[in-house]
Amino acid sequence: QVFFMHPSVDDDSGWSVLTGPVVINYVSDRDPGALRMAEAVDSPELRKKCKPGLLYFSTRGRMLQEGLSWDYDGDYFQIVSNQELLSGFRKEDTRTASPVLFGPSRSDSAVTPRTLTELQGHFLDTFPAHDNIGLYHYQWQLVAGES
Predict the structure, then answer these.
(1) Is residue 55 a contact partner of residue 2, using CB atoms and an 8 Å limit?
(2) pLDDT tens figures, 70-90
(3) Please, is 26 exposed, middle or buried when counting C-beta atoms within 10 Å of its C-beta (0-12, 13-18, 19+)?
(4) CA 147 to CA 142: how far, in whole Å?
(5) Cα 112 from chain centroid (whole Å)
């Protein structure tokens, strides 16, 4: 379980509490196997204790970061609560997906790197242009820095 208060978008009341199923990911971890399903909960006790804008993880049960490098030392996480996006995700689905690589021309022909150097070169040639999460995070940092 997690607890998260975010700015209210429906009115000027200040903060709203996120509830329901969510998928959480450490922003710099782009491994699809690092996505974790959790239940966002609300409670009056947590509202009194917790600071808005910070993500709190339950200390009971199996740890969400099990087998991952999350260290909770002020890192950024992304939280997905859109039910359409969550509909294809299962809590038990923690396998690492095999990447589908496309050539620099963005054609449908798959590229099979033969060496680690070729794989790294392919990543540096193609990934930055398609790093939507990174771009959104960068924009968020710019907006957050203005307030």
Answers:
(1) yes
(2) 777 777 888 888 888 787 776
(3) buried
(4) 9
(5) 27
Phi, psi values for residue 36, rounded to 5°: -130, 130
Looking up tokens 């509490």 gives: 17
Q: Comparing C-alpha atoms, which of 68, 66, 67, 85 is closest to residue 20?
A: 85
The CA distance from 40 to 21, in Å, is: 6
Q: Which amino acid is at 27?
A: V
Among 93, 100, 98, 13, residue whose Cα is nearest residue 52: 13
Say how far apart CA 62 and CA 49 lie, in whole Å: 23
- How deeply is 65 buried, as exposed, middle or buried, from its count of CB atoms within 10 A (0-12, 13-18, 19+)? middle
Task: Tell me how far apart the alpha carbons of residues 26 and 28 are, in angstroms, rounded to a whole number.
Answer: 6
For residue 38, the one-letter residue type is A
Separation CA 116–CA 130 (nearest Å): 21
Q: What is the DSSP letter of 102?
A: B
Kindly report whether the global pTM for this prediction surpasses the value 0.85: no
116: left (phi over 0), alpha (psi -120 to 50) or beta: alpha
